[in-house]
């Protein structure tokens, strides 16, 4: 009697099957007495379909049939879930933005708000929500489709080392769905930073690159990056706002808490040019009930920044106001992911999960408010100590502002520092280009799409092959959208078995 499948030697011993060109057993049915079969190919009755055998290796199940309906279901599920995440996150942020806009307009004047501009803002928010939903839905669907096609044609094990690289790169251009004329350089650079972090974690694990990547494990490297980024971002916020992305510039103007006339006055004194808007600054303070007369020969801009307030009292009052502005920003950041990532646990432990979300919201709001307040406090201290104000001092005074990142959880620090670093890099190169230190010619009109595609290629490869370099919360989201990928030595069709 022929042995059963449980007796098949799969340890690369002296019994395996002679294989054809693609590693598939040449025998339609195992012939246990055929001398041409050097090791004998065992199978139970009825035989498994399309068994693939390789000399000197374990049994491979690359050609196991898989229903097309299940492949289609995976792609459709990825599209739907990707769309829900994109639309949910963008829609949540847009909703809070509209609510804050309405609140400010109603509090600024008792007159009837302009319905047209509000309606226009709502329409724009709906368009952005749909675009980002389509973007992430298309990205997820494209990745799943390419992954399935390559796996079906080339075998899941044979293509495991490069399939996800290609699928991630092919899915990258879906970012164009957010707007064909909208540049996403900041987003692309941020995703590239994320890909670089994952690649560095892979390098730390490897024997070849471990020593080179070891400095990247510095305990407080995230705070140093934040300080470095803050020096560029906040200097640009005061001196050259046009070097910042429009949305980020609007964000800084909102949370910086200073009127544009005040920023213009600080810019003029730091640049060493005559004042052009002192009367406008005085008029602004009068609208707040502060009667002040500014000295055109002043050496430091403290009176421009906070009027008749002292530097210390201004820092405290600004911190309180900044905290109120920060709360609406972080509520959707914590609550929306809680509904997606912890959707199952939310029904079992609603108070625990919602409590952690509210605690995270409070903590992150304190970070943002302390960050903005300390920017003015540090610069005021430096100006008063050295009795002067210039561009290098603005950059130096905004450097320690990044220390406020220590308020945040350790797991979030690297995310925030990389986010700010991406914008700092873009702003820095824009300033260098405008100053004539770098050429203005651009050989690629959509360099952001290229950078994004390369980055997603690296990220999706790490997700499928080097899963341990991801944090669990990101794996939860990616697994929910794409499904848990099996190890390279295992086919997706037999992971459950």
TrEMBL record:
Alphabetical UniProt keywords: Membrane, Transmembrane, Transmembrane helix
Residue stretches making up the Transmembrane protein 135 N-terminal domain: 310-430
CC per GO annotation: endomembrane system
Species annotation: Trapa natans
Localisation per UniProt entry: Endomembrane system
The protein's name: Transmembrane protein 135 N-terminal domain-containing protein
Main location as per UniProt: membrane
Xref: InterPro entries: Tmem135, TMEM135_N
């Amino acid at each position: 009697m022929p042995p059963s499948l449980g007796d098949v030697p799969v340890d690369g011993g002296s019994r395996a099957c002679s294989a054809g060109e693609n590693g598939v057993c040449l025998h339609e049915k195992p012939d246990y007495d055929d001398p041409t079969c050097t090791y004998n190919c065992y199978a139970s009755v009825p035989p498994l379909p399309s068994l693939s055998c390789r000399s000197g290796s374990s049994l491979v199940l690359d050609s196991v049939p898989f229903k097309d309906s299940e492949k289609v279901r995976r792609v459709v599920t990825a599209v739907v879930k990707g769309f829900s995440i994109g639309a949910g996150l963008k829609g949540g942020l847009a909703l809070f933005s509209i609510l804050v806009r309405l609140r400010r307009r109603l509090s600024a004047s008792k007159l009837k708000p302009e319905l047209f501009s509000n309606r226009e803002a709502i329409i724009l928010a709906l368009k952005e929500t749909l675009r980002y939903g389509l973007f992430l839905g298309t990205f997820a669907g494209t990745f799943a489709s390419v992954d399935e096609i390559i796996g079906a044609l080339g075998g899941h094990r044979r293509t495991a080392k490069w399939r996800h690289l290609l699928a991630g790169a092919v899915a990258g251009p879906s970012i164009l769905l957010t707007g064909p004329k909208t540049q996403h350089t900041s987003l692309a650079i941020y995703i590239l930073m994320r890909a670089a972090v994952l690649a560095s974690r892979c390098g730390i694990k490897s024997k070849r690159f471990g020593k080179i990547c070891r400095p990247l494990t510095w305990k407080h490297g995230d705070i140093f990056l934040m300080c470095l980024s803050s020096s560029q971002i906040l200097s640009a916020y005061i001196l050259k706002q046009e070097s910042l992305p429009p949305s980020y510039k609007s964000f800084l103007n909102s949370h910086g808490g200073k009127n544009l006339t005040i920023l213009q006055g600080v810019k003029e004194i730091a640049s060493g040019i005559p004042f052009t808007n002192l009367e406008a600054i005085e008029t602004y303070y009068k609208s707040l009930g502060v009667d002040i007369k500014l000295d055109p020969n002043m050496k430091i801009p403290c009176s421009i920044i906070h009027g008749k307030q002292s530097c210390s009292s201004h820092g405290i009052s600004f911190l309180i106001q900044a905290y109120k502005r920060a709360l609406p920003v972080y509520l959707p950041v914590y609550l929306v992911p809680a509904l997606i990532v912890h959707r199952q646990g939310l029904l079992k432990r609603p108070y625990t999960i919602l409590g952690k979300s509210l605690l995270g919201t409070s903590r992150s709001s304190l970070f943002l408010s302390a960050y903005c307040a300390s920017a003015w406090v540090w610069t005021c201290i430096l100006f008063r100590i050295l009795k002067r104000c210039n561009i290098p001092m603005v950059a130096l005074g905004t450097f320690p502002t990044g220390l406020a990142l220590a308020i945040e959880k350790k797991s979030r620090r690297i995310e925030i520092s990389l986010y700010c670093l991406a914008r700092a890099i873009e702003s820095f190169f824009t300033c260098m280009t405008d100053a004539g230190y770098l050429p203005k010619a651009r050989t690629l009109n959509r360099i952001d799409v290229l950078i994004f595609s390369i980055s997603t290629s690296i990220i999706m490869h790490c997700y499928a092959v080097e899963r341990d370099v991801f944090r669990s919360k990101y794996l939860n989201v990616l697994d929910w959208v794409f499904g848990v990928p099996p190890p390279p030595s295992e086919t997706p069709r037999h992971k459950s078995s």
